[in-house]
Amino acid sequence: MGEVLALDELMAARTVWRASRGSALNHEGEATGHAPLDAVLPTGGWPRKALTELLLPADGVGEIALLLPTLARMTQAGNRVVLVAPPYIPYAPAWQSGGVALAGLEVVEAEPRDALWAFEQCLRSGACAAVLGWPKTADARAMRRLQVAADSGDCCGFALRDRRHAVNASPAALRLEYLPAQDAWQVRKCRGGQVPSQPLRLVQ
């Protein structure tokens, strides 16, 4: 699914300007590919230059399927999507069948003690359209650093975390929790808009 990319290469790529991610669009959202979700989000999609938290009861509940339409569109447009220390080896055919252009998908391998730093550096690099990370032990200060990094790197950041963190305050611009009993996503926080009262059942 593409070569493991050195972080220094990501940092060096910051000099590359992408017309599809020009500053005129920074205030708008990145369409999620799920019309009911776009309709309730204040930016009309995933917030750009910001961190989104997906709060999960377990791995593999549909979190990647939720993101696939966006990641597919980004990679097909020639932009880079990076997975930082994913908990499982990504299955390339599944990503490809979801529309992701594998040439634009990169995996950064990192030991657990280095994964949070790598996540932050990729967000900050300015070379990525989106970065996915799985920060298990990040405290409030670390999450603030990730949010700032996504902002400065003009990037969509996605932090996939255990739902036990839902009780803690978060600097993330958007927080969604998966509710297995309803097979639905509940918006817990959306900066700049009202939090919907009802969970959203999304066809994936």
UniProtKB/TrEMBL annotation:
Going by the entry's taxonomy, the superkingdom of the source organism is recorded as Bacteria
What Gene3D superfamilies does the record tag this protein with? P-loop containing nucleotide triphosphate hydrolases
- Keywords, ordered alphabetically: DNA damage
NCBIfam families referenced in this protein's UniProt entry, alphabetically: ImuA_translesion
PANTHER family given for it? BLR3025 PROTEIN-RELATED, TRANSLESION DNA SYNTHESIS-ASSOCIATED PROTEIN IMUA
Q: What is this protein called?
A: Translesion DNA synthesis-associated protein ImuA
As recorded in Swiss-Prot or TrEMBL, the protein's gene is named imuA
